[in-house]
């Protein structure tokens, strides 16, 4: 019965793959990841996941590490590798399931489930770790005041949230509708305050998650198998309730199985839903139960604050930003791939490895600007006979715009930078890096970049924003200048903003004093360029503005064209 069920599903998925052509699904196809938790920090979303590649294929969730992926555009994802492994980083723990992470005062706190038994916390000064347990014991156990009494509670699946007043909360629990728990965290984020609060959620199974929007607190969770393993939600006017059941965030995803786990997050003004299913494993012909993968969809809040149930797509979300090829691009950043693997790099971060002839990575929406390219640089290491990287635009079978030869460097972590001339390229393209070589695993790639032909230009201008008092505003600019050369300086109504020296400008909790004209100056060796000015209007009861309109249209070559717009959200009238 179970086998025939999977056979039907397998056939359906293959039919789907044939239909979707070049779909962007899932987020990371070179790994198996599950239980995603999102943290947005400085214009990127960091998604922390259970590392399903730790588990035996034929059974048991034996994950002992957590992996982090991040993206600023939701199409190209950077693999940061394992950010914690136990028991090394927490010697009392045997497992790392279903994490959650948050930043406070420049430190990052990662909460994880030690299977269903208890919850630990680990700390780092970087969102990508390494994270280490500061306590030497779990943070929350069944003995934590307020967790019991409970009927067979799973003390797991933490979600962490900091409210506007600075109070932090941990949500957790599983296996029964009376088993949701909320406990306050102290300001140190590694100790709890008082007793856990008991919350009842209809058909609650696991995967609690909290997001707040316009003063409404959304507690989402996975329902029990008998209720369809959906992501349902409740709302409240405070982070601790009382909660009222409000409906469905997302049905059981296609190509999934016996659990569902999701998180909601806001990036560049729009909302998203990141979840797991078993698409990659089914596609690869693997037993899928313990080999999950993550995917992202847009999340829409209706005018009354309720959530529009997720529409599952096979092409993911509209790209929200372009990739700048003139700043160093980590090789472990890509949208799609075939045959590659990642590993820790002796120079820091990760590098691409296990390359075989025919392997490739695809970078989505690479903006070469108007000025054209002159050279390609790559940081490579090769213990073997070397090989080559060829560069292709829009399709991996198009004529190469350049090819760089890689010679042996003396070791697979002995790095050197090589260059090759490229045909001048401008405009926005998908970029394929295709690998070939003279032996197996012929070289490793740490990073790459293009050199522009002329002085930098602004690729994306900051846009006008209308924001209600107390809301967050975010301006963003992109130039084709290389990261190493360029310096940013934001200016508000002619006044230099101290410390505003990044491509993003975040203004938390805006007041009317923030209103006015914003521009950024970008300087490099070639001179200074000035962006257009964008206006920030601070007004209570901002009229409803378009959020996340995307139009999908099939193209002749099998790809899908998705022009999209992301504007600021509406805010109901109210006092300042
Ligand atoms: O990954 C192990 C468990 O599966 C998680 O803790 C649950 O949420 C379910 O996804």
From TrEMBL:
<dbReference type="GO" id="GO:0045493">
    <property type="term" value="P:xylan catabolic process"/>
</dbReference>
<dbReference type="Pfam" id="PF03422">
    <property type="entry name" value="CBM_6"/>
</dbReference>
<keyword id="KW-0858">Xylan degradation</keyword>
<dbReference type="InterPro" id="IPR005084">
    <property type="entry name" value="CBM6"/>
</dbReference>
<keyword id="KW-0378">Hydrolase</keyword>
<feature type="domain" description="CBM6">
    <location>
        <begin position="327"/>
        <end position="451"/>
    </location>
</feature>
<dbReference type="Pfam" id="PF04616">
    <property type="entry name" value="Glyco_hydro_43"/>
</dbReference>
<dbReference type="InterPro" id="IPR003599">
    <property type="entry name" value="Ig_sub"/>
</dbReference>
<dbReference type="InterPro" id="IPR036179">
    <property type="entry name" value="Ig-like_dom_sf"/>
</dbReference>
<dbReference type="InterPro" id="IPR008979">
    <property type="entry name" value="Galactose-bd-like_sf"/>
</dbReference>
<keyword id="KW-0326">Glycosidase</keyword>
<feature type="domain" description="Ig-like">
    <location>
        <begin position="456"/>
        <end position="537"/>
    </location>
</feature>
<dbReference type="GO" id="GO:0004553">
    <property type="term" value="F:hydrolase activity, hydrolyzing O-glycosyl compounds"/>
</dbReference>
<comment type="similarity">
    <text>Belongs to the glycosyl hydrolase 43 family.</text>
</comment>
<keyword id="KW-0624">Polysaccharide degradation</keyword>
<feature type="active site" description="Proton donor">
    <location>
        <position position="206"/>
    </location>
</feature>
<feature type="active site" description="Proton acceptor">
    <location>
        <position position="54"/>
    </location>
</feature>
<dbReference type="InterPro" id="IPR052176">
    <property type="entry name" value="Glycosyl_Hydrlase_43_Enz"/>
</dbReference>
<keyword id="KW-0732">Signal</keyword>
<keyword id="KW-0119">Carbohydrate metabolism</keyword>
<protein>
    <submittedName>
        <fullName>Family 43 glycosylhydrolase</fullName>
    </submittedName>
</protein>
<dbReference type="InterPro" id="IPR013783">
    <property type="entry name" value="Ig-like_fold"/>
</dbReference>
<dbReference type="InterPro" id="IPR007110">
    <property type="entry name" value="Ig-like_dom"/>
</dbReference>
<feature type="site" description="Important for catalytic activity, responsible for pKa modulation of the active site Glu and correct orientation of both the proton donor and substrate">
    <location>
        <position position="157"/>
    </location>
</feature>
<dbReference type="InterPro" id="IPR006710">
    <property type="entry name" value="Glyco_hydro_43"/>
</dbReference>
<dbReference type="InterPro" id="IPR023296">
    <property type="entry name" value="Glyco_hydro_beta-prop_sf"/>
</dbReference>
<dbReference type="GO" id="GO:0030246">
    <property type="term" value="F:carbohydrate binding"/>
</dbReference>
<dbReference type="InterPro" id="IPR006584">
    <property type="entry name" value="Cellulose-bd_IV"/>
</dbReference>
């Amino acid at each position: 019965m179970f086998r025939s069920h999977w056979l039907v599903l397998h056939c359906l998925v293959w039919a789907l793959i044939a239909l979707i052509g070049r779909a962007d699904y899932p987020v990371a196809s070179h790994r198996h990841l599950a239980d995603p938790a999102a943290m947005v920090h400085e214009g990127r979303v960091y998604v922390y996941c259970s590392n399903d590649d730790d588990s035996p294929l034929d059974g048991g969730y034996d994950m002992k590490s957590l992996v982090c992926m991040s993206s600023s555009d939701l199409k190209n994802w950077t693999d940061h590798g394992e950010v914690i492994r136990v028991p090394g980083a927490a010697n009392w723990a045997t497992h790392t399931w279903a994490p959650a992470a948050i930043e406070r005062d420049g430190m990052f706190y990662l909460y994880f489930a030690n299977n269903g038994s208890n919850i630990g916390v680990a700390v780092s000064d970087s969102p990508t770790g390494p994270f280490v347990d500061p306590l030497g014991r779990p943070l929350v156990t069944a003995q934590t005041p307020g967790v019991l009494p409970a009927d067979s509670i799973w003390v797991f699946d933490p979600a962490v949230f900091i409210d506007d007043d600075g109070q932090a909360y941990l949500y957790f629990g599983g296996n029964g509708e009376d088993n949701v728990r909320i406990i306050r965290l102290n300001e140190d984020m590694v100790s709890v305050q008082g007793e856990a609060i008991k919350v009842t959620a209809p058909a609650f199974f696991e995967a609690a998650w909290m997001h707040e929007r316009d003063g409404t607190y959304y507690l989402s969770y996975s329902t029990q198998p008998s209720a369809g393993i959906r992501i349902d939600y409740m709302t409240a006017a405070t982070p601790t309730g009382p909660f009222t059941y409000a409906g469905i965030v997302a049905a059981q995803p296609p190509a999934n199985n016996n659990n569902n786990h999701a998180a909601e997050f806001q990036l560049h003004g729009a909302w998203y839903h990141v979840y797991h299913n078993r698409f990659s494993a089914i596609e690869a012909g693997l037993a899928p139960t313990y080999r999950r993968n993550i995917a992202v969809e847009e999340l829409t809040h209706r005018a009354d604050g309720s959530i529009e149930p997720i529409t599952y797509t096979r092409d993911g979300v509209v790209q929200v930003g372009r990739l700048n090829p003139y700043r160093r691009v980590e090789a472990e950043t890509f949208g799609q791939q075939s045959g590659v693997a990642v590993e820790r790099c002796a120079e820091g971060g990760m590098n691409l490895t296990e390359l075989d002839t025919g392997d490739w990575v695809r970078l989505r929406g690479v903006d070469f600007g108007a000025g054209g390219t002159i050279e390609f640089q790559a940081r490579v290491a090769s213990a073997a006979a070397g090989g080559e990287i060829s560069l292709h635009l829009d399709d991996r079978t198009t004529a190469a715009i350049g090819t760089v030869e890689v010679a042996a460097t003396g070791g697979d972590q002995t790095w050197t930078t090589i260059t090759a001339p490229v045909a001048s390229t401008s405009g926005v393209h998908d970029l394929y890096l295709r690998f070939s070589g003279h032996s197996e695993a012929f070289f490793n790639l740490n990073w790459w970049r293009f050199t522009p032909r002329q002085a930098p230009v602004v690729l994306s201008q900051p846009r006008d924003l209308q924001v209600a008092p107390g809301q967050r505003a975010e301006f963003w600019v992109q130039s084709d200048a290389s990261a190493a050369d360029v310096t940013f300086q934001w200016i508000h109504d002619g006044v230099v903003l101290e410390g505003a020296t990044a491509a993003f400008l975040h203004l938390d909790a805006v007041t009317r004093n923030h209103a006015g004209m914003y521009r950024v100056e970008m300087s490099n060796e070639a001179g200074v360029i000035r962006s257009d000015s964008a206006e920030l209007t601070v007004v209570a009861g901002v009229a409803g503005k378009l959020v996340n309109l995307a139009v999908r249209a099939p193209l002749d070559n099998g790809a899908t064209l998705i022009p999209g717009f992301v504007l600021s959200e509406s805010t109901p009238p109210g006092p300042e």
